[in-house]
């Protein structure tokens, strides 16, 4: 018998990743073309809650930890005979928020199964706590955009307080074409590398944070007013800043150049970088050409998604 089920979408960061960890604003959008579904079913064998997922290795172990933590946070009595089935087409560890999608879907499906009423803000808070188990000290942007499934501007607070979140409506539908290359290392490593850059030259890093803050503020205006051309230019500039702090790689740079050459308005890596996904802003009529260019340039996965 089905006791609870939920689907959560993926996400991508349009502007401001990495710098967001250091207090700069960022813009993130839901990626509805992919998602994670969690279904809680009564286990005919009566086994205590267990994760039935397609994951293997470390990701499987992380998923099991998330399940245990979510059950505890919801106050579910230990030993409930539940099979917690996960289906996902969110690429894992590639910048599209796979762990946030799993966390949000788990909290929603398990709370339904347990008969516990959880407000959307509580789903976000619980998913953030789960994200901390996987990522250490994530900014919270991933779990927030996935919980609300809306585009938003996000700024973490400098103390321990809540982040500032403002939902954004795009002035025009955005067509985004995404391409991936194999990932080198983890989000944790890439975030640590940026911390090391900051420690090595704090004044330079502060200047860069200031530039990215201006860039993101302009990007928010361009996003809301539908100025695709300037948004694309700002994405290109943002990619330059990410290259400078050492989180791009040759594969991502190659895909970004290929997308621009095929007529994209702009392109940048998205998420932690060093592989994983890049995102290109395309005119509707150009999306197929941009996708083909990414494939020819060696992308291992190509996706197109719209933000409305
Ligand atoms: O883990 P990813 O690739 O989805 O992206 C994390 C985004 C960062 O800005 C690099 C880190 C963070 O916590 O915001």
What does this structure look like?
The protein is built from nine helices and ten strands. A hairpin with a 6-residue loop joins strand 8 and strand 9 (276-282). It folds into two domains: 2-168, Ribosomal Protein S5, domain 2 (2-Layer Sandwich), CATH 3.30.230.10; 174-307, 2-Layer Sandwich (Alpha-Beta Plaits), CATH 3.30.70.890. The protein has 308 residues and is an alpha+beta fold. Strands 1, 2, 3, 4, 5 and 6 form a six-stranded mixed beta sheet that branches. The protein has helices spanning 57-73, 98-114, 120-135, 141-148, 187-200, 202-225, 228-244, 250-261, 287-296, and strands at 2-15, 26-42, 50-52, 82-88, 152-155, 164-167, 174-181, 266-269, 276-282, 301-307. The structure holds (3R)-3-hydroxy-3-methyl-5-(phosphonooxy)pentanoic acid. (3R)-3-hydroxy-3-methyl-5-(phosphonooxy)pentanoic acid is lined by residues 17-18, 20-21, 95, 97, 138-139, 141-142, 187, 191, 271-272, 276. Residues 17-18, 20-21, 95, 97, 138-139, 141-142, 187, 191, 271-272, 276 line the site of (3R)-3-hydroxy-3-methyl-5-(phosphonooxy)pentanoic acid.
Short précis:
By secondary structure, the chain is α+β, with helices and mostly antiparallel strands. The chain has nine helices and ten strands.
End-to-end distance: 36 Å
Question: What is the overall number of helices?
Answer: 9
The number of E-state strands comes to 10
- Mind telling me which CATH architecture of the largest domain this is? 2-Layer Sandwich
User: What's the number of domains?
Assistant: 2
Structural category: alpha+beta
Unique ligands? (3R)-3-hydroxy-3-methyl-5-(phosphonooxy)pentanoic acid
Approximate shape: globular
Which CATH first-tier class of the largest domain would you pick? Alpha Beta
Helix content, binned percent: 40-55%
Rg over CA atoms, rounded to whole Å, is 19 Å
Which fold name is given in CATH as the topology of the largest domain? Ribosomal Protein S5, domain 2
Which sequence of SSEs, written as H and E, runs from N to C?
Answer: EEEHEHHHEEEHHHHEEHE
Please state roughly what percent of the residues sit in beta strands, choosing from under 5%, 5-15%, 15-25%, 25-35%, 35-45% or over 45%: 15-25%
Instruction: Characterize the largest beta sheet: strand count, sense, and whether it forms a barrel.
Output: 6 strands, mixed
Give average pLDDT, whole number: 95
């Amino acid at each position: 018998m089905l006791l609870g089920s939920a689907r959560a979408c993926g996400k991508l960061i349009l502007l401001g990743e990495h710098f967001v960890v250091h207090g700069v604003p960022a813009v993130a959008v839901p990626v509805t073309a992919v998602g994670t579904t969690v279904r809680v079913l009564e286990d005919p064998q009566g086994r205590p809650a267990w994760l039935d997922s397609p994951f293997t290795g470390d990701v499987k172990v992380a998923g099991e930890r998330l399940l245990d933590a979510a059950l505890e946070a919801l106050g579910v009595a230990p030993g409930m005979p539940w099979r917690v089935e996960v289906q996902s087409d969110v690429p894992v560890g590639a910048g599209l928020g796979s762990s946030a999608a799993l966390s949000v879907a788990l909290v929603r499906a398990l709370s339904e199964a347990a008969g516990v009423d959880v407000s959307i803000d509580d789903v976000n808070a619980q998913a953030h706590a789960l994200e901390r188990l996987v990522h250490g000290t994530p900014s919270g942007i991933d779990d927030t955009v996935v919980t609300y499934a809306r585009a938003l501007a996000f700024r973490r607070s400098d103390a321990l307080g809540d982040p500032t979140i403002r939902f954004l409506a795009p002035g025009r539908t955005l067509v985004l074409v995404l391409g991936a290359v194999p990932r080198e290392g983890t989000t944790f490593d890439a975030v640590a590398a940026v911390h090391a850059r900051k420690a090595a030259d704090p004044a330079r890093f502060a200047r860069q944070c200031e530039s990215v803050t201006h860039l993101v503020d302009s990007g928010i205006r361009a996003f809301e007013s539908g100025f695709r051309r300037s948004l694309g230019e700002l994405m290109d500039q943002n990619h330059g800043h990410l290259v400078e702090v050492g989180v791009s790689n040759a594969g991502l740079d190659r895909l970004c150049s290929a997308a621009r050459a095929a007529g994209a308005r702009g392109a940048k890596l998205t998420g932690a970088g060093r592989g994983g996904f890049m995102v290109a802003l395309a005119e509707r009529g150009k999306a197929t050409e941009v996708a083909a260019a990414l494939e020819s340039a060696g992308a291992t996965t190509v996706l197109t998604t719209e933000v409305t």
